[in-house]
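Quick start: read one record
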Amino acid sequence: MSLTSLILYHPEIKALFATIPNMKASFASTDSEELPFPPSPPIVVSRASRATSIIGHAYDYWLRAYIQRINDCPQELYEDSLAASFAVQMLAGPMPSLPETYRQIVDRRNAYITKACDVTPGLIQGAIVLGNLDQYYRSGQLVEGGVLQVNEADVEDLQRLIQETESHSSLFLAQNSLVCNPCFGEAITQLVGGADGDLLMDGMLIDIKVESAFKWKIAYLRQLLGYWILSCLTPRFEGEIEHLAIWNPRYCRLVYIPVQEVCRSINMVEFVDAFLNIICLPGFDMASHILNRDKQRFVEEVLQVWQSTDNPIRRQYR
């Protein structure tokens, strides 16, 4: 179970995050003339058939590669730097040719990141296979036809999403800092059962939502707030998060909320105290996979980071 699953299904965590107020009015759009969540925004990339969940994972892999490319900042060139690699390890026994196929996909993606090639059908198909692998790693469920199955409707859909995203490239040019797929500390990640972000750019944590509807959902804020908390419980986290954002490529819209606004509406020190009081308990069932001695070490590390007077959340209240 991951942080997202905890927020959705764990009774105590779900109840805690349900106390987060509706902050829709505190979001802003990168297009200053637009409401962040207008009543009926025009969709830019629609799809005739129902989109599969794979397309979101596939788009995520392509977008991160694209952002590294346009910023001349390669970060994911090693095979094990992608979450899909864990699925390859899990499936290598019954699929002995999968590791080599995966290497070829990563090599093609790396060539794109380093500008040795442009978008090709092979790159798009490879992104979809990475999406299949990611889906399997996170859910344990194989797509129909297996992880190497490429749906032509997904290929066409991803190609259109790519074309529209490229026309909004200015949104993804970093001025100071860029971290693709930011990860959190081992201790806090183990305690919550796993979590990773999509993109951190110039202090803005961006969550990618490839959804056919663009409307306000409190679940968006809860997930982003959870990630921000994990970053503040990570020793030496790469960069400091100042904004929480959502990017939907079907509408080409990027909306965000400053963490200062969150801290004005919620006592985040009390919120994190309550969060830690749940996940640090010896009987917390979501951490039952951890050996007791390791869990104690993880709890001590997380509490040490949290109790520091220099913690990013505590600094918000100085």
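The radius of gyration is 20 Å.
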